[in-house]
Design a protein that fits this description.
Helix content: 25-40%
Order of helices and strands: HEEEEHHHHHHHHHH
Largest sheet: 2 strands, antiparallel
Number of helices: 11
Shape: globular
Strand content: 5-15%
Length: 304
């Protein structure tokens, strides 16, 4: 147990996923635990920021429920005297029997190779490869706002970004540790593209020249808050480390009325609870992403 404990970690805290719900699990490994008549247990490697694919079963990790597709995370529950990892939304036991892995073998192989490279870099076994500081600096740059509409640099990488803003990094100074699995995978691929790791440029093409220039020109800022200091501040005050930027009540009401009047909601209103909640969540994310902040709370510009 002492050897498995994260308190004896050989890597800095920023290289671990900060939120438990953002860490993926391998259902096939959990199925093997059940077949061995043992408890489910969460492997330490799954909490590494570069954990994207199970190296044993060669399939992508999962951070959502295969039954209700909820992304609230998993928790342990006792069933027949054994610890089982279950969905926090519908209490279904995590299992690979509910959904086949549809990942492309080539993509799975690329993500496995990339994860191995990052693990070697963090452990100091990468030889002539990049340093952990370079990878972390690339991650921070990718989530730094560019000059075009304050979009982060990762938006110009040419990669297919996940739909909506759910799971984006909670702290842009620690994007790898505070992003959900899908956004973490995208960030790691963009880092590989920028640093040319695992043949990423052959697969995805090079990033735009201005991203190269920004990475070369931006010195490492040691004064930026670290993940450990933000987590410690949150634990001491009992408040979130990042300040929530809430919209006005009028804007929330306007967005809610638009959702209730949309055809998508009218079709899903009579559906089951899980389907209705999933559609509602998608519509909420889309509405918040599209609507400029405070647009509904202030009058329009006066006509000259």
């Amino acid at each position: 147990l002492a050897g498995m404990a994260l308190s004896r970690r050989a890597r800095p805290l920023a290289w671990y996923v900060a939120e438990r719900s953002h860490a993926g699990v391998c259902p096939a490994c959990l199925d093997q635990d059940t077949a061995d008549d043992g408890d489910h247990y969460v492997r330490r490697a799954w909490s590494h920021v570069e954990a994207m694919v199970c190296s044993r079963h060669r399939q992508g990790l999962r951070d959502f429920c295969g039954r209700c597709f909820g992304s609230a995370g998993f928790r342990f529950h006792e069933l027949a005297g054994k610890a089982r990892l279950v969905c926090m939304t519908c209490l279904t036991v995590v299992s690979s029997c509910r959904e086949a892995d549809r990942a492309e073998p080539q993509k799975t192989g690329f993500l496995t190779t990339l994860a191995d490279i990052v693990t070697a870099v963090v452990a100091g076994d990468a030889g002539e490869g990049p340093s952990p500081e370079e990878i972390m600096r690339a991650a921070k740059l990718l989530w730094t706002p560019s000059q075009a509409d304050d979009k982060p640099f990762i938006a110009w990488s040419g990669l297919g970004l996940p739909k909506g803003g759910h799971g984006m990094p909670a702290q842009r100074t620690a994007p790898l540790a505070t992003a959900a699995l899908t956004w973490r995978i995208t960030t790691l691929i963009a880092i590989a593209q920028l640093l040319d790791l695992a043949g990423a440029r052959r697969r995805f093409g090079p990033p735009p020249p201005f991203v190269f220039q920004a990475f070369a020109a931006e010195p490492e800022n040691a004064s930026q808050p670290t993940l450990s200091s933000a987590v410690r501040q949150s634990e001491e005050t009992g408040k979130p480390a990042t300040k929530l930027e809430l919209r006005s009540n009028a804007e929330y009401r306007s967005l809610a009325e638009a959702i209730l009047a949309s055809p998508d909601w009218k079709r899903a209103e009579r559906a089951g609870g899980a389907t209705r909640s999933r559609v509602l969540g998608r519509l909420m994310i889309q509405a918040l992403d599209r609507a400029p902040r405070d647009r509904a709370a202030v009058p329009g510009r006066a006509v000259p």
